[in-house]
Amino acid sequence: MVNPTHASAAQTTPSSASPIKNKIGSVFLPVRDIEKARNWYCQLLGLNKDDCPIIAGHLCPLPMQGTSIILDTMPKWGGDRPAGAPPIETPACTFPTDDLEGSLQYVKSIGVELVTEIEHDHWFVIKDPDGNKLMISREM
Questions:
Q1: Are the C-beta atoms of 125 and 115 separated by less than 8 Å?
Q2: Residue 121 within a domain
Q3: How far apart are CA 85 and CA 65, in angstroms?
Q4: Which GO molecular function, any one, fits this protein according to its record (predicted)?
């Protein structure tokens, strides 16, 4: 698996042709119940839910190192339908770990749904309560 954090200089050299920055600011994850999702992600990532405020009744930015994650019931994008906004069916993001086996045991111990076991001795995929797939991978 290619490590996306090791981009070549050609890929990271800013171009004067675009005012858009060459980085990801935030990743939005669609959820149906913002409080339930906040509690689940706080447990998964070891965050204090008091540090994860719910904003405008549908947004919850998670205090992350690096690119941020924003949980969102997405009322503008289909979240107002009974089933909510559709989940992300392919891994939306990767959470790095120094202890892949320990991470697998941890998610099992807290009842997280596994999509895969450890693959290629490098990663595994889980599913959040809303069906979004997330990857846990060995940090390179």
A1: yes
A2: yes
A3: 26
A4: dioxygenase activity
Give the count of beta carbons closer than 10 Å to the beta carbon of residue 82. Answer: 5
Rounded to an integer, what distance in angstroms lies between the CA atom of residue 100 and that of residue 90? 20
Nearest 5°: phi and psi at 71?
Answer: -80, 140
Please tell me what DSSP assigns to residue 50.
G
| Alpha carbon separation from 100 to 37, 47, 137 (Å, rounded) | 23, 19, 7
| 11, 12, 39 from 8: Cα distances, Å | 5, 7, 38
One-letter amino acid of 116: T
| 100 and 128 assigned to the same domain | yes
Name the DSSP class of 86: P
Which range marks the domain in which residue 97 is found?
87-140
Which pLDDT tens digit goes with each residue over 31-89?
Answer: 999 999 999 999 999 999 999 999 999 999 999 999 999 999 999 888 878 888 899 99
